[in-house]
């Protein structure tokens, strides 16, 4: 890369650290400020922060790589994600914003679950926190793998050096500014990603003589659109669309709904967020499609399909623009890592440490412990990411399924079913998480493969978790009056605010 590209990247790093310093001076006096920005986040920041933390390095690397290898079948993943995100804004966001505040101002998802059942020290809180730390460590490692591949492919530097640099910058601003820093940097990073995912596929497409020329070269490696649509099996279609189920249980996404300043702002956030998502996800798919056609037309050797965005950035653009596009990849990576680290730290602090320490833990001490939590999870994720052969999309899909199955059914049922019981909630979480892990790792098929090779693990995980919650709620003791009062109060406030 040219020196101008490095200058662009250096300015980007400085800007992110500057935002972290600004947030440090404005929001970290207590845990509400550190973890939720005091519930005063604007709809614009909420929308782009939710989008950027959702669409991580897999958006610019994993999804184009999947299109490069799988072809048009990848479109179904995009459809599932888009529908899931839209339903999340409509069904989950408004109620979660009100309910978490009514439930004794819950700052984390595990705390919300506990307060929802009027059991602030209930087992559900610790179990949820452990699952969050477990799957977010895996999820964060996917982002670090993307960072390592970026530095190796674009800069010719060591993969492991890329891990360290990526981690150092994102941990620094997350440690400093907490939720406000994460949300503000996500907003900037979301804007960068938006522009990059328009610019790269459009410029790459200009190397062809039209859509027919592009299709002809693309079909040398992947089936045509009509062939792809007709050859997709039922299980492949179900697995791809089922990605949308994951949205309801992603702590780093739904926590944005808890932090928005009012229910009335959610409609604005939804419009901005969904518009942003449609453009970026189409841009990511287009990058992969144009990439496979470009490779065939010009004899380009692509050793790792997940680096096609990086290859285009270096081949087709002026060094100054190339630096901006590299910053876009870093933006995608860092926006998600920072969100995941913060949610993991909040669970370690609020749902494990502070719960055990009780009143002995001051606000200042809790914030300090939260920062230690950020560093601890980051180190564990880096150890998992040391193997550069890991697939970004594969790591993301596993963690996405884990959260979607463990928390998704419970979030939905918690918000809409007042007779849900604490025992049912605990059973549902454990069932979802265990099913996903079994589906991924148990080599029970005749050829030694796991069941995830047949159908995406979120499908059985989500179904079994939902079924267990329903059955156990039916056979266990009904919730107490205080729990039902919280539920009814939430509905009343929501009606008034709308």
User: For this structure, what is the CATH homologous superfamily?
Assistant: Sodium/glucose cotransporter
Low-confidence stretches: none
List how many beta strands DSSP finds: 0
Distance between the termini: 52 Å
Shape: globular
What is the CATH C level class, in words? Answer: Mainly Alpha
Helical fraction: over 70%
Number of helices: 20
Question: Which structural class matches the secondary elements?
Answer: mainly alpha
Q: Radius of gyration in whole Å, from Cα?
A: 22 Å
CATH topology: Sodium/glucose cotransporter
CATH-defined architecture? Up-down Bundle
Approximately what portion of the residues adopt beta-strand conformation?
under 5%
Output mean pLDDT: 84
Q: Secondary-structure element order, as H and E?
A: HHHHHHHHHHHHHHHHHHHH
- Tally of domains: 1
Main sheet attributes: strand count, strand direction, barrel closure: none
Structure description:
With 498 residues, this protein is mainly α. It has a single domain, classed as Up-down Bundle (Sodium/glucose cotransporter). 78% of the residues lie in helices and 0% in strands. The mean pLDDT is 84. Helix 3 packs across helix 8. The chain is globular. The longest helix is centred in the middle third of the chain and has 47 residues, at 159-205.
């Amino acid at each position: 890369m040219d020196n101008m590209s490095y200058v662009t990247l250096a300015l980007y790093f400085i800007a992110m650290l500057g935002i972290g310093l600004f947030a440090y001076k404005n929001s970290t006096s207590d845990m509400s400020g550190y973890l939720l920005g005091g519930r005063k986040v604007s709809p614009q920041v909420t929308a782009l922060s939710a989008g950027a933390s959702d669409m991580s390095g897999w958006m610019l690397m994993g999804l184009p790589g999947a299109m490069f290898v799988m072809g048009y079948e990848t479109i179904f993943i995009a459809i599932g994600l888009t529908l899931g995100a839209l339903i999340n804004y409509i069904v989950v966001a408004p109620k979660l914003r009100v309910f978490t505040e009514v439930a004794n101002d819950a700052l984390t998802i595990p705390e919300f679950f506990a307060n929802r059942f009027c059991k602030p020290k209930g087992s559900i809180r610790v179990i949820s926190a452990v699952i969050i730390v477990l799957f977010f460590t895996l999820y964060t490692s996917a982002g670090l793998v993307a960072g390592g591949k970026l530095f190796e492919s674009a800069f010719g530097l060591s993969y492991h050096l890329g891990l360290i640099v990526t981690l150092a910058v994102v941990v620094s601003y997350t440690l400093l500014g907490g939720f406000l820093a994460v949300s503000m940097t996500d907003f900037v990073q979301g804007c960068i990603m938006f522009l990059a995912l328009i610019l790269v596929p459009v410029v790459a497409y200009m190397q062809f003589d039209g859509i027919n020329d592009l299709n002809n070269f693309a079909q040398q490696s992947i089936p045509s659109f009509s062939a792809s649509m007709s050859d997709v099996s039922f299980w492949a279609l179900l697995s791809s669309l089922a990605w949308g189920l994951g949205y309801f249980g992603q702590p780093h996404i739904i926590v944005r709904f808890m932090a928005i300043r009012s229910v009335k702002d959610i409609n604005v956030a939804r419009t901005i967020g969904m518009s942003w998502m449609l453009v970026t996800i189409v841009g990511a798919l287009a990058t992969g499609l144009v990439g496979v056609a470009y490779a065939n037309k010009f004899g380009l050797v692509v050793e790792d399909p997940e680096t096609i965005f990086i290859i285009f950035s270096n081949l087709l653009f002026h060094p100054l623009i190339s630096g901006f596009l590299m910053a876009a990849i870093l933006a995608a990576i860092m926006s998600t890592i920072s969100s995941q680290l913060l949610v993991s730290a909040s669970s370690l602090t609020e749902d494990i440490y502070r719960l055990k320490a009780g009143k002995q833990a001051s606000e200042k001490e809790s914030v300090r412990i939260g920062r230690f939590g950020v560093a601890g999870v980051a180190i564990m994720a880096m150890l998992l990411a040391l193997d550069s052969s890991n697939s970004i999309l594969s790591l993301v899909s596993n963690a996405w399924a884990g959260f979607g199955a463990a928390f998704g059914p419970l979030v939905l049922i918690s918000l809409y079913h007042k007779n849900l019981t604490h025992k049912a909630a605990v059973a549902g979480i454990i069932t979802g998480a265990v099913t996903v892990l079994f589906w991924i790792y148990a080599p029970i098929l005749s050829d030694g493969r796991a069941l995830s090779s047949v159908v995406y693990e979120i499908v059985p995980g989500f179904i079994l978790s939902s079924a267990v919650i329903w059955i156990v709620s039916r056979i266990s003791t009904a919730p107490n009056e205080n729990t039902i009062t919280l539920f009814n109060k939430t509905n009343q406030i929501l009606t008034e605010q709308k």
